[in-house]
Amino acid sequence: MYLIGQQVLTNDPKDRHVLAAAVIVKADIIVTNNLNDFNSQALTPWHIQAQSPDNFLSDLFDKYPVEIIQVIQDQSQNYKRSPKTLVQLLELLSKQLPRFTKKILSHESTQN
Fold first, then answer.
1. What residue ranges do the domains of the chain occupy?
2. pLDDT digits (tens, 9 = 90+) for 31-54
3. Please, are residues 18 and 30 in contact by the beta-carbon 8 Å criterion?
4. CB 70 within 8 A of CB 78
5. For residues 76-97, b (16+ Cβ closer than 10 Å) or e, as one string?
């Protein structure tokens, strides 16, 4: 299926290869900080939506809180040069993922 050159895709031309890949693999979601280039009008015919990383991870956390906490804890322990606590890692992530990190911190405070 050749999608890009046939004007079948209507999102931003510089990002059509991303939508084409999502269509080919039958993805449900494109995760990107560049939401402006993936408007719903361009995605709806393909049954795909675009989400920011923060919203995507927040939604995953809502569905799988225990598993996500475990992944974040494992990630914090994998820093070899300067190990990080869970809170330190969340502080780093909070700059780009404020909603996600807030949910984790809130969840952890209710668990302790």
1. 13-51, 55-111
2. 999 999 999 999 999 999 999 999
3. yes
4. no
5. beeeeeeeeebeebbeebbeeb
